[in-house]
Design brief:
alpha/beta, 3 helices, four-stranded parallel β-sheet, 21% strand
Length: 71
């Protein structure tokens, strides 16, 4: 499961396209918190102001800032 804390619809679409066919991509904040709490996440993607949000232990984190997204 890929968990994304972002507001950009294009980034959300790109994550869904990049995920494995059988893999879920969670973007709703309540489901994101639950997935992180129960350690279901394989990857946490943070962007659009969420870079400073909590960093869970044991879950790889990909922080995307505006400069990186413009490349």
């Amino acid at each position: 499961m890929i968990v994304a804390r972002c507001t950009d619809p294009l980034l959300r679409h790109a994550l869904r396209a990049a995920a494995h066919v059988e893999e879920d991509v969670v973007t709703e904040s309540a489901l994101v918190a639950e997935a992180l709490q129960w350690r279901f996440a394989r990857l946490l993607v943070r962007a659009n102001g969420f870079e400073a949000a909590d960093r869970p232990t044991g879950v790889p984190v990909l922080d995307l800032d505006d400069a990186l997204l413009r490349c």
